[in-house]
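Q: I'm a student working through a structural biology exercise. My instructor gave each of us a protein and asked us to get a predicted structure, then write a short paragraph describing it. Mine is Eukaryotic translation initiation factor 3 subunit L. I'm not confident about reading structure output yet, so if you can add a plain explanation after the tokens, that would really help. Here is the sequence I was given:
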Amino acid sequence: MARPGMPLWAADDEIDEDFQGVDLSMAIGNYGQNGLYDEVQSRIDEAALLAVQQQMQQQAAFAQIPDQVKRFIVHFHQAVLNNNLEEITVAYESGWNRLTEKFYSKTEWPEAEIIAPLVNDDPIFLILYRELYYRHVYSRLQPNIDDRFHSYENSCELFNYLLNSDEPVALELPEQWLWDIIDEFIYQFQSYCVWRSRVKSKSDEELILLQEASSQGVWSAYSVLNVLYSLIQKSKINEFIVSQQQGKSEEEIAEIVGEYGVRPLYRMLGYFSIIGLLRVHTMLGDFTLALKVMENVELNPKAQFTRVTACLVSTYYYVGFCYIMLRRYMDAVRGYLSILNFILRMRQYHTRSYQYDQINKTADRMYALFAVCNALAPSRIDDNILSTVKEKFGEQFTKMQRGEDGISAFEELFLYSCPKFISANPPPYDDPDALAVYVDDPPMEPAQRHLGLFLSDVRAQAPVPTLRSFLKLYTSLDATKLANFLDADEEEIVQQMMVMKQASRNVSRVGGEKGLLEGSIRPTSDLDFVIDENMLHMVESTVGRRYAGWFIRSTENAQRVLDTLKSSPLPGPGKSAAVQGASGATEAPRTGGPKVAWGGVKVA
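A: Happy to help. First, here is the predicted structure for Eukaryotic translation initiation factor 3 subunit L. I'll explain a few features afterward.
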């Protein structure tokens, strides 16, 4: 450490090394000739001068870093060197965010080159530091084009270090940080794709840079998918999951997954990469492939992704959305019921997490999607979830029950809760003519394209709520009479009945099926009917109320009330007792008279 009051960079040896590249004869000049100073100065090595100026600027920026931040960076670096997961976790989840709020809430953290002397120019730590630096820029500030390119370069350096090493790297990071690395990598890719598609707002310089970036594959869908698939292959995470499901011993698993797969760093990165692929394929609109990559991952409380709450919430969100786009509404409802109940139970613990706001936002989007699923496939659902849905989206929830009049509510909730879809192909920056056509007639936004596909299915089911309300009133009904009720002819009514029959049957998973794409056709409605010549016969299945859940919730509520009472302080003495204590007078105990019981005076 440097002496107090003395900057770390103020060492004579370092200054001498920095000036070794300067040509002293040129800097001093040749006074033995004609003494023309301007002619001599024109021969100064401009590159060396700029290097000195840059070093002086870095030294000035280093001096402005608060001492508390310097101590934190030194401590953080030492924890990473020692692979001390406990200290790394505290520094990552607490220290970084606390110092961000205190010093850098509206500005960037110091650049990696400035804090490099504090960590002895450790290249690995500087890569990790830049990962946090650019994540801060994306979340708190507005990234410019240089930030977008440099964040991609830093991600490439990090993944190349992990994937191209001859042996597993000696690095340990907390599971939360590993998930955030994958999650942020995908978020920056999505942000770049959205930004590059807005051609009209680009300057001429940005267009030239984007042309070069497109030719080099910067933030291309191929490069992102290649990283995720490479991490899965390197860690052999699918083989690890299958071996665990088959009940093999740790020795057998270690032999199968190899030296990389046994390391927690590679194993968790591979596991999180599977969830990352789910997200990327969903954003690209390939919902079947998104669920296909999850075929070995089980959605249960014992799965490894449940250790990181943000990963757990994200997994259920994207799996549920894929089910909605594949018209598997009951599977989506089951998933959302499970995760939303979990969030309700664990809400008091989430408030301690720095990702509390993000988890709540994702939960609100899942409530909206849950309302959409319930409108398209009505079923008996949890009262707590239903009351929360009506509280947050009560107006839209009611409108979606009105058939054609509720289309606008479906559109509103879909656009609010859907992922940010992206286009895999960039605009034609390398062809000025094609780019001009692109600007004049831009293609449809990916979100609008998926919205159109979703609404086409909703419009096909628009008559179902009205038909359902009539059929629930009868056990048998003549088709002609039903046509008169709805002011339509019999042929049109039969077509609507077939639409209702199709809407009430979806592919759904049954207990014991492994893959998320597996399932069989099952009825999703509590109302069924048959058409016998000109008569409709209806049957409604009623499900008895499940009292177990009600008793469990009531017991938990009573336990919370009891715990609150036990932890509350005892009430202080009343006013009359205080007055008596001040006067020093005490009343003699009563020895006779009527006895007072709870509820009144007992009269003899």
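A: Here are two points you could use in your paragraph. The first helix runs from residue 12 to 18. Residues 1-20, 22-33, 576-604 have pLDDT under 50 and may be disordered. It's a good idea to check both against the output above yourself.
Q: Great, thank you!
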